[in-house]
Amino acid sequence: MALQAASLVSSAFSVRKDGKLNASSSIKESSLFGVSLLDQNKVNSVSSSLRCKRAQSLSKNGAIIRAQTIATSAPTVTKSSSEGKKTLRKGSVVVTGASSGLGLATAKALAETGKWHVIMACRDFLKAEKAAKSAGMPKDSYTVMHLDLASLDSVRQFVDNFRRAEMPLDVLVCNAAVYQPTANQPTFTAEGFELSVGTNHLGHFLLSRLLMDDLKNSDYPSKRLIIVGSITGNTNTLAGNVPPKANLGDLRGLAGGLNGLNSSAMIDGGDFNGAKAYKDSKVCNMLIMQEFHRRFHEETGITFASLYPGCIASTGLFREHIPLFRALFPPFQKYITKGYVSETEAGKRLGQVVSDPSLTKSGVYWSWNKSSASFENQLSQEASDIEKARRVWEVSEKLVGLA
Ligand code: LMG
Ligand code: NDP
Ligand code: PMR
């Protein structure tokens, strides 16, 4: 089914050249540093015709918000038969932020198996198309759809477009993130939430909540919702103790709407700190994954999981860091902490959490040891606080307009 398309992609897209996969193949992770300090032992064949209509408008913060709708032909996801036996149809997985880094590497890893169709949910349509092409992803293995997590309207629009495309949803991967380590002043999403928490947590929270029905409706044998977490949000690790440390406090800033006006831009109500805001957003990601598990796993059979893929020190995540940091961070992680992983290896890891039949346990925070074997890791006290998870869920519901 081809939907109406208004116009072709405008040429106003900015496309950078950093969408390439890292060729490095280091697969080790620190056995000393990468593990919990508390317990060292635990240590369809789819042919898409893509067209888009885009409009630009100014948000109240003056930031340019792009509204873009994509029309795509629906995939053929019929069950094929070989020698009279039914074989499994292709899985259909949405990956947010698949235009670079971990998201792109995961999209590529899944596409290459021939068993997955990847919906690349990205804010920069052309960048995503280019990235998929230069990563060598087969043309019929992916569909790019516009999603800007820093706008709740865009999240709703994405869900709408996705449903219109009539593709099943078997796995949702909440991967996209922004990190503003050098920002002195907060910036805000379209709705006026501090950008890191607004994008990494609130945008994904609304997306996941809206897509729960689609996941429930999937007839795929293993349905999963995966939210990318991080070691740096876990204060039971050395990395999580590098200042500024994550801390959600009593959530007074979040409850106030993180708007920096009559409320703090920080979840705990403190002064703005970009690195802390990112780490706090990762704690929210890990708490929300567990809250999903408690609320929906039994009823739906969906697997909810989070992970720390390793330190992928050369991704675009550090684009706003000072040049000296960007130069020293990869060798520091490679040779000193030994926590470094390449984008390719990290993509395989997240790919496993999407599709490996042995990783179906729900409520788990996955990590990998130095031999690149997965294990169930322990979250910090705050990131496993049941009461806090419930409160983050309830406050977030109000902020995104679900309650
Ligand atoms: C802030 O600085 C920034 O201000 C902010 O913008 C943001 O980036 C934020 O977290 C992100 O960091 C953090 C600052 C804190 O870090 C630095 O400035 C250091 C930058 C280092 C970057 C890599 C440098 C590498 C240096 C080595 C050079 C090698 C070059 C490689 C060449 C290899 C060739 C072979 O940093 C500090 O404050 C320093 C102190 C940090 C120590 C933190 C550790 C705490 C440990 C606590 C122990 C935990 C205990 C828990 C309980 C244990 C129980 C057993
Ligand atoms: P990248 O910057 O390479 O990738 C982040 C992706 O998120 C990009 O595709 C980016 O889009 C997208 N994105 C950012 N803002 C938005 C938005 N408003 N709407 C939609 N998409 C958006 O970083 P990584 O690959 O490193 O990060 C991926 C995940 O891995 C994150 O969740 C991060 O927290 C996590 N992680 C990373 C670690 C690391 O060491 N790198 C360690 C632990 C966890 P665009 O391409 O347009 O910029
Ligand atoms: Mg960290 C000891 C192991 C270890 C690991 C696995 C990481 C991962 N880091 C470790 C140690 C240290 N780091 C130490 C000892 C220092 C002080 C020198 C240090 C510093 C540091 C900085 C300044 N590290 C950082 C930063 C960042 O800006 C990154 C960050 O916090 O982003 C939020 C970062 C990271 N260290 C990691 C990982 C995975 C990151 C990337 C961020 C993430 O996505 O969570």
TrEMBL record:
Alphabetical list of CDD domains matching this protein: LPOR_like_SDR_c_like (cd09810)
Chief location of this protein within or outside the cell: plastid
GO MF term (any one): protochlorophyllide reductase activity
Keyword Chloroplast applies: yes
Pathway stated in the Swiss-Prot or TrEMBL entry: Porphyrin-containing compound metabolism; chlorophyll biosynthesis
Enzyme class: oxidoreductase
Cited InterPro entries: NAD(P)-bd_dom_sf, Prochl_reduct, SDR_fam
Pfam families found in the cross-reference section: adh_short (PF00106)
Name of the protein described by the UniProt record: NADPH-protochlorophyllide oxidoreductase
Catalytic activity of the protein: chlorophyllide a + NADP(+) = protochlorophyllide a + NADPH + H(+)
Localization: Plastid, Chloroplast
Parts forming coiled coils: none
This enzyme's EC code(s): 1.3.1.33
Family: Belongs to the short-chain dehydrogenases/reductases (SDR) family. POR subfamily.
GO biological process: chlorophyll biosynthetic process; photomorphogenesis; photosynthesis; response to ethylene; skotomorphogenesis
One CC-aspect GO term: chloroplast
Keywords, alphabetical: Chlorophyll biosynthesis, Chloroplast, NADP, Oxidoreductase, Photosynthesis, Plastid, Transit peptide
Function comment: Phototransformation of protochlorophyllide (Pchlide) to chlorophyllide (Chlide).
